[in-house]
Amino acid sequence: ASFSFEVAELAIAQGILPRTISSDIYCKNRIKGPVYSLAHVMSKFLAIGMTLEQVLACVTHHAADALRLPGKGRLEVGAAADLTLFEVSSGPTLFTDTEAGARNGDRQLLPLAALVGGELVLTHYGKSHHAFCV
């Protein structure tokens, strides 16, 4: 199985934090869950106690460094300015894992838009929220 709340919580309680977070997404777990999207997986880590800054680091510069992709995963001079704009939605959300475990969360990351290679792409959340980049 790809993700277990119980295992993740035990590791975090012992001070073992993930260095990277990925979705491990494929058709079955995207459509029927429990993955749905990388933003949804990121939200699960918020629900079990990681900070937003820790979660973002795991999917940006830590992931780029692990893949040896210089110039990716960070905003700095000379780096590619690929961005994702998220809304941090507040409200009760039930998250599930691959072991049929569940946890309640009070925040969920909703991707509104992405800017990749200078091209703006709105998500269905972004289209309903009238997202824009300047």
Uncertain segments are none
Q: How do the SSEs run, as a string of H and E?
A: HHHHHEEEH
Radius of gyration over alpha carbons?
15 Å
Distance between the first and last residues' Cα: 41 Å
Strand element count: 3
Rounded average pLDDT: 88
Report the total helices: 6
Question: Structural class, judged by helices and strands?
Answer: alpha+beta
Strand order of the largest sheet: 1-2-3
**Share of helical residues:** 25-40%
Shape: globular
Strand fraction equals 15-25%
The biggest beta sheet reads: 3 strands, antiparallel
Features:
globular, 6 helices, 25% strand, three-stranded antiparallel beta sheet, 3 strands, alpha+beta, 134 residues
Give a structural overview:
With 134 residues, the protein is α+β, with helices and mostly antiparallel strands. It is 33% helix and 25% strand. The protein contains 6 helices and 3 strands. Strands 1-2-3 form a 3-stranded antiparallel β-sheet.
